[in-house]
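Hey team,

Filing this mostly as a record. A colleague (T.K.) asked me to run one chain through the structure pipeline before their review meeting, and I want the input and output archived in the tracker in case anyone asks later how it was produced. No errors, nothing strange. Just documentation.

Input sequence:
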Amino acid sequence: MKKYFVILLVIPALLNAQQRFINDTLQMQGDSVVVTANRTERKLSNITVPVNIVNAKQIQQAGSLRLTDILKEQPGLNMTSGFGAGVQLQGLNPDYTIILINGEPLVGRTAGVLDLNRIALGNIKKIEIVKGPSSSLYGSEAMAGVINIITESATNIPVQASIRYGTYETYDAGINNAIATQSVFYQGFYNYFSTNGFSIRPNSNSRVTTPIRRYTLNQQLKYNISNNTNIAVGIRVTDEKITNDISVSNGGTTINSLGKEHNTDQNGSLSLNHRFSNQLKTSFRTYYTEYNAKQDLITISGAPYYDLLNHVFKRLENQTDWNVNKKVNLILGTGVVWEGVKSSRYDSEQLRKTNNIQYGFTQIEWTPWDQFIINGGIRFDKNEAFASAFSPKFSALYKINTKHKLKLSIGQGFKAPDFRQIYLDFTNAAAGGYSVFGTAQAQQVIGNLTRLGQIGTLYDSYYQLKTLKPESSTGVHLSWEYEPTVNSFVSIQLFRNDIQNLIQVQQVGAYITGAQIFSYLNIGRAFTQGIELEAKQKINTHFNVSTGYQYLVTGDKDQIAMIKAGKVYTRDASGYSRLLLLSDYVGLPNNNTHKAQLKINYYAANGLFANFRILYRSNWAVNNTNGNEVFDQGDEFASGYISLHTSVGTAYKNGFSMQVGWDNITNYTDPLNLPNLPGSTFFATLKYQFIKK
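Output structure:
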């Protein structure tokens, strides 16, 4: 045990902000500054598109260590766990939401999912969530929306440290320090995280989630050359080591995954910013990020297995903001991206796949009168490897009066098939031996495995595999916001996304061991639509309540047409074949019809706080088992569930603060469909603020 405390002292970890427990608990954030929606600073009250903000206080009071635990409590967001911990926004898969840190994209997706759990939470200032197509500003990866994680700056952070211990020997420690002078601003964040993993499968001889040791370093430096010019440098490094120790009994066959994994994430940014006047400013930015993932394992057969993924992303960009007059604001931007991927998952020779993109975008904001704001933009991406496209967007805000607002946004998104969807040749020995094959590899690889006697089942979807087509989407969002008082807020949002040639992960077969085999298929005409409700109420100085609900409907229009034409069959409870009715159809996989959350917060005058959080997720389709390509049977669904969470904490005037928490109070688990969800877990955190503000 002593060695862990030595590590905690030497290599600091997670920081949780600790101040202002009562005063800013539930401020209706109408005057908050938002940068993601327009790629420039704007007050939230003047933003024309749907935006949610998660501030540092909400993160700290939840006591969460994982970004996914924070995001899943937000309206309209859902977490996936099939190929890592990713985020699903309004029914669209993780592929279609771009994840940014301080405006710069993260890379290193595995099977389309960017594992968000690798992001430390300790120095996050806020998270901005923009819903709806944002390709006009951020490119093709933002078809569903944008999540921008904004870290603390030197002016916001005193010197702070924290130590945390939780279930499964989970250790978390950190330090955050800042230096600010008249011309130099520095902020540093250091994070160490470790856990021994957990096992929730009854037939498991060892862990399902394996031991992890993760180090994070985040450094930011800004130098004011003059009153109008500054240069900023940012460095972020994550180093993660995983010791695999999994042995799972599956159908009488033992699946082993023994060995080590080593993942690194390195990011660097440099920007030169100049303000010509109060009306005109420009920024030159360069960004480099590289993600490396290495696996050195023992496979099911006992043979050694080595896997490598190297993803490099480079970008050079200029953006100019021009306030033409009090009514017109203009944004102009241009840039170039070079992207390369080298992986044993793509081919045995690990040849690098590259792509170059040149782009330009513009956005104009017009305020004809104080109550009415119109925003229009367009972007052009010239893609070397795939198709090029225009991405337009229109949005408007009408302030009916001081209490009522209406918002309308219409945008188009575009997404070409990416490297993994075409070239992926990946078997994850660390998670039961499932495989994902790109469309250029799938039929050849599966054919070879069939001849070797390793394939148990091939579904009809296997015979539908062909060259993927680019995706395109049109999204419409209409929302009403109501603030009856300064302490209350209500919003209703209607949304509809129509997607042409939607690329979906589909199970195309299974090994004789039962492990699943996936590939990618175009769904000709798909849609997601629904309604989101959100409400917040500050009851008094001690209590506030917030709640959210989403009703989601998804579907494949071609499948619906086949059902209406009487061409799709299913089996009844007796095993007899019958025509599938439209009322039997549930839509696309991995989507919940209902999702809701309720948060109750308490604050005492002495700094004591407590919260209680309830999350509900209805059942969702996972695998088609009867071969009709429609989800219509009970065994094709994962069960819905309710999870309960609570934490209690306090801040002392001498700089110390403490917090304890209990997550997943009901001890709900689903090893098959939610392998990353442990049972009940507990934690205790001690923090100290060296320099008070």
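Quick notes for T.K.: The CA atoms of residues 319 and 333 lie 4 Å apart. DSSP finds seven helices and 38 strands in the chain.
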